[in-house]
Amino acid sequence: MHTLHVELGERSYPIYIGRDLLNDPQLLGAHLTGSQVVVVTNETVSPLYLDRLLAILGERALVTEVILPDGEQFKNLETLNQIFDRMMHDRHNRSTTMIALGGGVVGDITGFAAACYQRGVNFIQVPTTLLSQVDSSVGGKTAVNHPLGKNMIGAFYQPQAVLIDINTLHTLSPREFAAGLAEVVKYGLICDLPFYRWLQEQTPRLLAREEAALAEAIERSCSSKAAVVAADEREGALRAILNLGHTFGHAIETAQGYGKWLHGEAVAVGMLMAMELSARRGWIEPAEVVAFRDLLRVINLPVAPPADMTPGQYLDLMGRDKKVIDGRLRLVLLRGMGEACIVDDATEEELVSLLETFR
Ligand code: NAD
Ligand code: GLY
Protein backbone atom coordinates (compact mmCIF):
# COMPACT_ATOMS: atom_id res chain seq x y z
CA MET A 1 0.00 0.00 0.00
CA HIS A 2 1.13 3.57 -0.70
CA THR A 3 -0.08 6.60 1.18
CA LEU A 4 -0.17 10.10 -0.30
CA HIS A 5 -1.26 13.20 1.58
CA VAL A 6 -3.37 16.17 0.59
CA GLU A 7 -1.71 18.96 2.56
CA LEU A 8 -4.36 21.42 3.68
CA GLY A 9 -3.35 22.34 7.20
CA GLU A 10 -5.88 21.09 9.71
CA ARG A 11 -7.98 19.67 6.86
CA SER A 12 -5.12 17.49 5.54
CA TYR A 13 -5.93 13.87 4.83
CA PRO A 14 -4.39 10.66 3.54
CA ILE A 15 -5.06 8.88 0.26
CA TYR A 16 -4.47 5.15 0.71
CA ILE A 17 -3.78 3.29 -2.54
CA GLY A 18 -3.40 -0.48 -2.67
CA ARG A 19 -4.85 -3.92 -3.22
CA ASP A 20 -7.43 -5.48 -0.92
CA LEU A 21 -7.85 -2.36 1.21
CA LEU A 22 -11.53 -3.24 1.51
CA ASN A 23 -10.44 -6.20 3.64
CA ASP A 24 -8.53 -4.04 6.13
CA PRO A 25 -10.57 -2.86 9.14
CA GLN A 26 -7.71 -0.76 10.57
CA LEU A 27 -7.50 1.79 7.78
CA LEU A 28 -11.16 2.74 7.82
CA GLY A 29 -11.49 2.37 11.58
CA ALA A 30 -8.84 5.04 12.15
CA HIS A 31 -11.07 7.64 10.46
CA LEU A 32 -14.43 6.84 12.03
CA THR A 33 -15.15 9.40 14.70
CA GLY A 34 -18.34 8.13 16.32
CA SER A 35 -20.44 5.01 16.50
CA GLN A 36 -22.88 6.10 13.79
CA VAL A 37 -22.16 5.49 10.11
CA VAL A 38 -24.08 6.15 6.89
CA VAL A 39 -22.89 4.21 3.86
CA VAL A 40 -24.11 5.70 0.59
CA THR A 41 -23.74 3.53 -2.50
CA ASN A 42 -25.83 2.57 -5.50
CA GLU A 43 -27.72 -0.44 -6.81
CA THR A 44 -24.80 -1.55 -9.04
CA VAL A 45 -22.00 -1.24 -6.49
CA SER A 46 -23.87 -2.54 -3.45
CA PRO A 47 -24.07 -6.20 -4.55
CA LEU A 48 -20.34 -6.08 -5.40
CA TYR A 49 -18.77 -4.35 -2.38
CA LEU A 50 -21.24 -3.34 0.30
CA ASP A 51 -20.92 -6.52 2.36
CA ARG A 52 -17.15 -6.18 2.40
CA LEU A 53 -17.39 -2.62 3.62
CA LEU A 54 -19.93 -3.52 6.27
CA ALA A 55 -17.67 -6.35 7.47
CA ILE A 56 -14.72 -4.02 8.08
CA LEU A 57 -16.94 -1.45 9.80
CA GLY A 58 -17.41 -3.95 12.63
CA GLU A 59 -19.97 -3.45 15.38
CA ARG A 60 -21.44 0.05 15.40
CA ALA A 61 -24.39 1.50 17.27
CA LEU A 62 -26.03 2.53 14.02
CA VAL A 63 -25.23 1.78 10.37
CA THR A 64 -27.61 3.17 7.77
CA GLU A 65 -27.29 1.89 4.21
CA VAL A 66 -28.54 4.24 1.52
CA ILE A 67 -28.69 2.57 -1.89
CA LEU A 68 -29.29 5.09 -4.65
CA PRO A 69 -30.45 4.46 -8.20
CA ASP A 70 -27.46 4.30 -10.56
CA GLY A 71 -26.73 7.11 -12.98
CA GLU A 72 -25.68 10.69 -13.56
CA GLN A 73 -29.35 11.59 -14.07
CA PHE A 74 -29.92 10.92 -10.36
CA LYS A 75 -27.18 13.28 -9.22
CA ASN A 76 -29.71 15.94 -8.24
CA LEU A 77 -31.40 17.67 -5.34
CA GLU A 78 -34.18 15.09 -5.16
CA THR A 79 -31.74 12.22 -4.58
CA LEU A 80 -29.81 14.36 -2.11
CA ASN A 81 -32.99 14.85 -0.15
CA GLN A 82 -33.56 11.10 -0.02
CA ILE A 83 -30.23 10.78 1.78
CA PHE A 84 -31.25 13.45 4.30
CA ASP A 85 -34.64 11.75 4.81
CA ARG A 86 -32.93 8.49 5.77
CA MET A 87 -30.46 10.20 8.07
CA MET A 88 -33.18 12.19 9.83
CA HIS A 89 -35.38 9.11 10.11
CA ASP A 90 -32.54 7.08 11.66
CA ARG A 91 -31.59 9.97 13.98
CA HIS A 92 -28.03 10.52 12.85
CA ASN A 93 -26.27 13.19 14.84
CA ARG A 94 -23.26 15.40 14.20
CA SER A 95 -20.80 12.67 15.17
CA THR A 96 -21.90 10.42 12.32
CA THR A 97 -19.52 9.49 9.50
CA MET A 98 -20.74 9.34 5.91
CA ILE A 99 -18.95 6.89 3.61
CA ALA A 100 -19.27 7.16 -0.17
CA LEU A 101 -18.85 3.74 -1.77
CA GLY A 102 -18.97 4.01 -5.55
CA GLY A 103 -17.99 6.18 -8.48
CA GLY A 104 -17.93 9.94 -8.85
CA VAL A 105 -21.71 10.30 -8.80
CA VAL A 106 -22.01 8.65 -5.39
CA GLY A 107 -18.88 10.46 -4.16
CA ASP A 108 -20.02 13.94 -5.26
CA ILE A 109 -23.54 13.61 -3.88
CA THR A 110 -22.43 12.01 -0.60
CA GLY A 111 -19.78 14.66 -0.10
CA PHE A 112 -22.35 17.40 -0.61
CA ALA A 113 -24.73 15.67 1.80
CA ALA A 114 -21.91 15.48 4.35
CA ALA A 115 -21.17 19.20 3.87
CA CYS A 116 -24.82 20.11 4.52
CA TYR A 117 -26.10 17.65 7.11
CA GLN A 118 -26.20 19.48 10.43
CA ARG A 119 -23.74 21.96 8.86
CA GLY A 120 -21.11 19.32 8.23
CA VAL A 121 -20.29 15.78 9.32
CA ASN A 122 -17.32 13.46 8.82
CA PHE A 123 -16.93 11.96 5.39
CA ILE A 124 -14.77 9.22 3.83
CA GLN A 125 -14.38 8.47 0.14
CA VAL A 126 -14.14 4.84 -1.02
CA PRO A 127 -14.01 5.35 -4.81
CA THR A 128 -14.60 2.28 -6.99
CA THR A 129 -14.22 3.60 -10.56
CA LEU A 130 -10.95 4.62 -12.17
CA LEU A 131 -12.28 8.13 -12.70
CA SER A 132 -13.26 8.56 -9.08
CA GLN A 133 -9.97 7.05 -7.86
CA VAL A 134 -7.81 9.46 -9.86
CA ASP A 135 -9.96 12.56 -9.70
CA SER A 136 -13.33 13.06 -8.06
CA SER A 137 -12.60 11.48 -4.65
CA VAL A 138 -9.62 13.79 -4.07
CA GLY A 139 -9.85 17.53 -3.55
CA GLY A 140 -13.20 18.13 -1.91
CA LYS A 141 -15.34 19.29 -4.81
CA THR A 142 -18.85 18.05 -4.05
CA ALA A 143 -22.04 18.82 -5.95
CA VAL A 144 -25.26 17.86 -7.62
CA ASN A 145 -26.37 18.86 -11.12
CA HIS A 146 -28.99 21.42 -12.12
CA PRO A 147 -30.96 20.76 -15.33
CA LEU A 148 -29.22 23.81 -16.83
CA GLY A 149 -25.69 22.96 -15.76
CA LYS A 150 -23.39 20.26 -14.36
CA ASN A 151 -22.27 20.43 -10.72
CA MET A 152 -23.89 23.83 -10.27
CA ILE A 153 -25.06 23.29 -6.69
CA GLY A 154 -22.34 22.18 -4.33
CA ALA A 155 -19.62 22.96 -1.82
CA PHE A 156 -15.91 22.55 -1.25
CA TYR A 157 -15.79 19.95 1.50
CA GLN A 158 -12.78 17.73 2.10
CA PRO A 159 -13.05 14.09 3.18
CA GLN A 160 -11.20 12.70 6.23
CA ALA A 161 -9.58 10.02 4.08
CA VAL A 162 -9.67 8.45 0.62
CA LEU A 163 -9.37 4.69 0.45
CA ILE A 164 -8.56 3.37 -3.03
CA ASP A 165 -8.79 -0.39 -3.42
CA ILE A 166 -7.38 -1.08 -6.88
CA ASN A 167 -9.04 -4.50 -6.95
CA THR A 168 -12.44 -2.90 -7.37
CA LEU A 169 -11.43 -1.92 -10.90
CA HIS A 170 -11.65 -5.54 -12.07
CA THR A 171 -15.46 -5.39 -12.14
CA LEU A 172 -15.63 -2.10 -14.04
CA SER A 173 -16.99 -2.17 -17.60
CA PRO A 174 -14.52 -1.43 -20.43
CA ARG A 175 -16.44 1.73 -21.32
CA GLU A 176 -16.26 3.13 -17.77
CA PHE A 177 -12.60 2.11 -17.50
CA ALA A 178 -11.78 4.00 -20.72
CA ALA A 179 -13.64 7.06 -19.43
CA GLY A 180 -11.45 6.98 -16.31
CA LEU A 181 -8.30 6.81 -18.43
CA ALA A 182 -9.29 10.14 -20.00
CA GLU A 183 -8.78 11.86 -16.63
CA VAL A 184 -5.49 9.97 -16.12
CA VAL A 185 -4.19 11.26 -19.46
CA LYS A 186 -5.30 14.76 -18.42
CA TYR A 187 -2.66 14.92 -15.67
CA GLY A 188 0.07 14.10 -18.16
CA LEU A 189 -1.08 16.84 -20.51
CA ILE A 190 -1.50 19.57 -17.91
CA CYS A 191 1.52 19.11 -15.66
CA ASP A 192 3.52 15.90 -16.12
CA LEU A 193 4.94 15.38 -19.62
CA PRO A 194 7.08 12.32 -18.65
CA PHE A 195 3.88 10.70 -17.35
CA TYR A 196 2.09 11.50 -20.62
CA ARG A 197 4.92 9.90 -22.61
CA TRP A 198 4.78 6.89 -20.25
CA LEU A 199 1.04 6.62 -20.87
CA GLN A 200 1.52 6.71 -24.64
CA GLU A 201 3.71 3.60 -24.23
CA GLN A 202 1.98 1.82 -21.38
CA THR A 203 -1.66 2.09 -22.46
CA PRO A 204 -1.85 -1.61 -23.48
CA ARG A 205 -0.79 -2.63 -19.95
CA LEU A 206 -3.37 -0.30 -18.47
CA LEU A 207 -6.09 -1.58 -20.77
CA ALA A 208 -5.17 -5.11 -19.67
CA ARG A 209 -5.59 -3.78 -16.10
CA GLU A 210 -2.16 -4.94 -15.00
CA GLU A 211 -1.97 -4.08 -11.33
CA ALA A 212 1.52 -2.59 -11.31
CA ALA A 213 0.65 -0.27 -14.20
CA LEU A 214 -2.67 0.68 -12.61
CA ALA A 215 -1.03 1.44 -9.28
CA GLU A 216 1.57 3.63 -11.00
CA ALA A 217 -1.07 5.52 -13.01
CA ILE A 218 -3.33 6.07 -9.98
CA GLU A 219 -0.48 7.21 -7.75
CA ARG A 220 0.92 9.67 -10.27
CA SER A 221 -2.54 11.06 -11.00
CA CYS A 222 -3.44 11.44 -7.31
CA SER A 223 -0.09 12.96 -6.55
CA SER A 224 -0.60 15.66 -9.23
CA LYS A 225 -4.14 16.27 -8.04
CA ALA A 226 -3.07 16.52 -4.39
CA ALA A 227 -0.35 19.05 -5.29
CA VAL A 228 -2.71 21.27 -7.29
CA VAL A 229 -5.42 21.14 -4.59
CA ALA A 230 -2.88 21.91 -1.86
CA ALA A 231 -1.77 24.98 -3.81
CA ASP A 232 -5.27 26.26 -4.64
CA GLU A 233 -8.03 24.45 -2.78
CA ARG A 234 -10.93 26.68 -3.81
CA GLU A 235 -9.93 27.29 -7.41
CA GLY A 236 -8.76 30.86 -7.07
CA ALA A 237 -6.68 30.29 -10.20
CA LEU A 238 -4.32 27.30 -10.58
CA ARG A 239 -6.86 24.56 -9.79
CA ALA A 240 -8.76 25.45 -12.96
CA ILE A 241 -6.06 23.62 -14.95
CA LEU A 242 -7.66 20.38 -13.72
CA ASN A 243 -10.53 21.33 -16.00
CA LEU A 244 -8.67 20.83 -19.29
CA GLY A 245 -11.34 19.82 -21.79
CA HIS A 246 -14.12 20.22 -19.23
CA THR A 247 -15.69 23.43 -20.56
CA PHE A 248 -16.34 21.78 -23.93
CA GLY A 249 -17.06 18.45 -22.21
CA HIS A 250 -19.64 19.82 -19.76
CA ALA A 251 -21.44 21.48 -22.69
CA ILE A 252 -21.62 18.08 -24.42
CA GLU A 253 -22.88 16.30 -21.28
CA THR A 254 -25.53 18.94 -20.61
CA ALA A 255 -26.70 19.17 -24.23
CA GLN A 256 -26.95 15.42 -24.66
CA GLY A 257 -28.79 14.82 -21.38
CA TYR A 258 -26.93 13.63 -18.29
CA GLY A 259 -25.74 10.05 -18.56
CA LYS A 260 -25.75 9.66 -22.34
CA TRP A 261 -22.14 10.67 -22.80
CA LEU A 262 -19.93 9.58 -19.90
CA HIS A 263 -18.06 12.41 -18.18
CA GLY A 264 -14.67 10.99 -19.21
CA GLU A 265 -15.81 10.59 -22.82
CA ALA A 266 -16.96 14.19 -23.02
CA VAL A 267 -13.72 15.36 -21.38
CA ALA A 268 -11.67 13.33 -23.89
CA VAL A 269 -13.22 15.13 -26.86
CA GLY A 270 -13.02 18.40 -24.95
CA MET A 271 -9.27 17.89 -24.44
CA LEU A 272 -8.88 17.22 -28.16
CA MET A 273 -10.64 20.54 -28.88
CA ALA A 274 -8.45 22.37 -26.35
CA MET A 275 -5.33 20.86 -27.92
CA GLU A 276 -6.46 21.81 -31.41
CA LEU A 277 -6.99 25.39 -30.23
CA SER A 278 -3.56 25.37 -28.56
CA ALA A 279 -2.00 24.14 -31.81
CA ARG A 280 -3.79 26.87 -33.78
CA ARG A 281 -2.21 29.41 -31.47
CA GLY A 282 1.17 27.87 -32.22
CA TRP A 283 1.71 26.66 -28.66
CA ILE A 284 1.97 22.92 -29.40
CA GLU A 285 2.92 21.00 -32.53
CA PRO A 286 -0.02 19.89 -34.73
CA ALA A 287 1.62 16.43 -34.67
CA GLU A 288 0.86 16.26 -30.92
CA VAL A 289 -2.84 16.71 -31.68
CA VAL A 290 -2.68 13.86 -34.18
CA ALA A 291 -0.83 11.65 -31.67
CA PHE A 292 -3.37 12.48 -28.97
CA ARG A 293 -6.23 11.53 -31.28
CA ASP A 294 -4.46 8.22 -31.91
CA LEU A 295 -4.10 7.65 -28.17
CA LEU A 296 -7.82 8.27 -27.65
CA ARG A 297 -8.56 5.74 -30.41
CA VAL A 298 -6.35 3.11 -28.75
CA ILE A 299 -8.17 3.69 -25.46
CA ASN A 300 -11.48 3.47 -27.33
CA LEU A 301 -12.57 6.97 -26.41
CA PRO A 302 -14.53 9.18 -28.82
CA VAL A 303 -12.56 11.53 -31.05
CA ALA A 304 -15.52 13.53 -32.35
CA PRO A 305 -18.29 15.35 -30.48
CA PRO A 306 -22.00 14.57 -31.04
CA ALA A 307 -22.83 15.36 -34.66
CA ASP A 308 -25.98 17.28 -33.80
CA MET A 309 -24.37 20.03 -31.70
CA THR A 310 -24.05 23.49 -33.21
CA PRO A 311 -21.41 26.10 -32.28
CA GLY A 312 -24.24 28.28 -30.95
CA GLN A 313 -25.27 25.52 -28.54
CA TYR A 314 -21.71 25.19 -27.22
CA LEU A 315 -21.32 28.94 -26.78
CA ASP A 316 -24.61 29.17 -24.89
CA LEU A 317 -23.74 26.30 -22.54
CA MET A 318 -20.10 27.33 -22.16
CA GLY A 319 -21.30 30.81 -21.18
CA ARG A 320 -22.77 29.23 -18.04
CA ASP A 321 -19.51 27.51 -17.08
CA LYS A 322 -18.26 28.03 -13.52
CA LYS A 323 -15.03 29.41 -14.95
CA VAL A 324 -16.88 32.38 -16.49
CA ILE A 325 -15.92 35.51 -14.55
CA ASP A 326 -17.57 38.89 -15.24
CA GLY A 327 -18.91 37.56 -18.52
CA ARG A 328 -15.48 36.40 -19.74
CA LEU A 329 -15.11 32.73 -20.60
CA ARG A 330 -11.90 31.22 -19.26
CA LEU A 331 -10.51 28.21 -21.06
CA VAL A 332 -7.74 25.80 -20.13
CA LEU A 333 -5.29 25.37 -23.00
CA LEU A 334 -1.76 24.00 -23.34
CA ARG A 335 1.05 26.56 -23.51
CA GLY A 336 3.25 23.55 -24.26
CA MET A 337 2.97 19.80 -23.79
CA GLY A 338 2.67 19.08 -20.08
CA GLU A 339 2.06 22.75 -19.33
CA ALA A 340 -1.51 23.99 -18.95
CA CYS A 341 -2.50 27.65 -18.90
CA ILE A 342 -5.73 29.56 -18.43
CA VAL A 343 -6.79 32.08 -21.06
CA ASP A 344 -9.67 34.54 -21.17
CA ASP A 345 -9.05 36.00 -24.59
CA ALA A 346 -10.65 33.41 -26.87
CA THR A 347 -12.87 35.30 -29.28
CA GLU A 348 -16.24 34.08 -30.48
CA GLU A 349 -14.80 33.94 -33.99
CA GLU A 350 -11.92 31.72 -32.86
CA LEU A 351 -14.27 29.38 -30.99
CA VAL A 352 -16.83 29.13 -33.79
CA SER A 353 -14.07 28.34 -36.27
CA LEU A 354 -12.74 25.61 -33.95
CA LEU A 355 -16.18 24.13 -33.31
CA GLU A 356 -17.02 24.14 -37.03
CA THR A 357 -13.91 21.99 -37.66
CA PHE A 358 -15.31 19.36 -35.31
CA ARG A 359 -18.76 19.17 -37.00
P1 NAD B 1 -20.30 6.90 -11.98
O1 NAD B 1 -20.25 7.26 -10.57
O2 NAD B 1 -21.60 7.07 -12.69
O3 NAD B 1 -19.82 5.39 -12.13
C1 NAD B 1 -19.79 4.81 -13.40
C2 NAD B 1 -20.57 3.48 -13.45
O4 NAD B 1 -19.77 2.45 -12.86
C3 NAD B 1 -21.86 3.48 -12.67
O5 NAD B 1 -22.81 2.71 -13.36
C4 NAD B 1 -21.48 2.79 -11.36
O6 NAD B 1 -22.57 2.20 -10.71
C5 NAD B 1 -20.51 1.76 -11.86
N1 NAD B 1 -19.52 1.27 -10.92
C6 NAD B 1 -18.89 1.96 -9.94
N2 NAD B 1 -17.91 1.22 -9.42
C7 NAD B 1 -17.95 0.03 -10.03
C8 NAD B 1 -17.18 -1.16 -9.94
N3 NAD B 1 -16.13 -1.23 -9.12
N4 NAD B 1 -17.50 -2.22 -10.71
C9 NAD B 1 -18.53 -2.12 -11.59
N5 NAD B 1 -19.28 -1.02 -11.76
C10 NAD B 1 -18.98 0.05 -10.99
O7 NAD B 1 -19.22 7.71 -12.84
P2 NAD B 1 -17.71 8.12 -12.58
O8 NAD B 1 -17.09 8.15 -13.90
O9 NAD B 1 -17.11 7.37 -11.49
O10 NAD B 1 -17.85 9.63 -12.06
C11 NAD B 1 -18.44 10.62 -12.86
C12 NAD B 1 -18.94 11.73 -11.98
O11 NAD B 1 -17.85 12.31 -11.26
C13 NAD B 1 -19.61 12.87 -12.73
O12 NAD B 1 -20.78 13.23 -12.07
C14 NAD B 1 -18.59 13.99 -12.66
O13 NAD B 1 -19.19 15.27 -12.71
C15 NAD B 1 -17.96 13.72 -11.33
N6 NAD B 1 -16.61 14.27 -11.19
C16 NAD B 1 -16.35 14.98 -10.08
C17 NAD B 1 -15.07 15.48 -9.86
C18 NAD B 1 -14.76 16.19 -8.58
O14 NAD B 1 -13.68 16.78 -8.47
N7 NAD B 1 -15.62 16.13 -7.58
C19 NAD B 1 -14.07 15.24 -10.79
C20 NAD B 1 -14.37 14.50 -11.92
C21 NAD B 1 -15.65 14.01 -12.12
N1 GLY C 1 -11.90 17.77 -11.33
C1 GLY C 1 -11.59 19.15 -11.20
C2 GLY C 1 -11.17 19.57 -9.84
O1 GLY C 1 -11.16 18.77 -8.93
O2 GLY C 1 -10.89 20.69 -9.63
UniProtKB/TrEMBL annotation:
Reaction(s) catalysed (UniProt annotation): 7-phospho-2-dehydro-3-deoxy-D-arabino-heptonate = 3-dehydroquinate + phosphate
Annotated positions binding NAD(+):
70-75, 104-108, 128-129, 141, 150, 168-171
Task: List locations, semicolon-separated.
Answer: Cytoplasm
Q: What is its EC number?
A: 4.2.3.4
Superkingdom as given in the UniProt entry: Bacteria
GO MF terms listed in the record are:
3-dehydroquinate synthase activity
Naturally occurring in which organism (per UniProt): Candidatus Seongchinamella marina
Q: Tell me the cofactors it needs.
A: Co(2+); Zn(2+); NAD(+)
What's the stated role of this polypeptide?
Answer: Catalyzes the conversion of 3-deoxy-D-arabino-heptulosonate 7-phosphate (DAHP) to dehydroquinate (DHQ).
Task: Enumerate the transmembrane spans.
Answer: none
Pathway annotation from the record = Metabolic intermediate biosynthesis; chorismate biosynthesis; chorismate from D-erythrose 4-phosphate and phosphoenolpyruvate: step 2/7
Domain (3-dehydroquinate synthase C-terminal): residue spans on this chain: 180-324
The enzyme class is lyase
| Residues annotated as domain 3-dehydroquinate synthase N-terminal | 66-178
Q: Which InterPro entries match?
A: Dehydroquinate_synthase (IPR050071), DHQ_synth_AroB (IPR016037), DHQ_synth_fam (IPR030963), DHQS/DOIS_N (IPR030960), DHQS_C (IPR056179)
Keyword tags: Amino-acid biosynthesis, Aromatic amino acid biosynthesis, Cobalt, Cytoplasm, Lyase, Metal-binding, NAD, Nucleotide-binding, Zinc
Belongs to which family?
A: Belongs to the sugar phosphate cyclases superfamily. Dehydroquinate synthase family.
Binding locations of Zn(2+): E183, H246, H263
> Can the keyword Lyase be found in this entry's annotation?
yes
Cofactor: how and how many bound = Binds 1 divalent metal cation per subunit. Can use either Co(2+) or Zn(2+).
Pfam families annotated for this entry? DHQ_synthase, DHQS_C
Specify the protein name.
3-dehydroquinate synthase
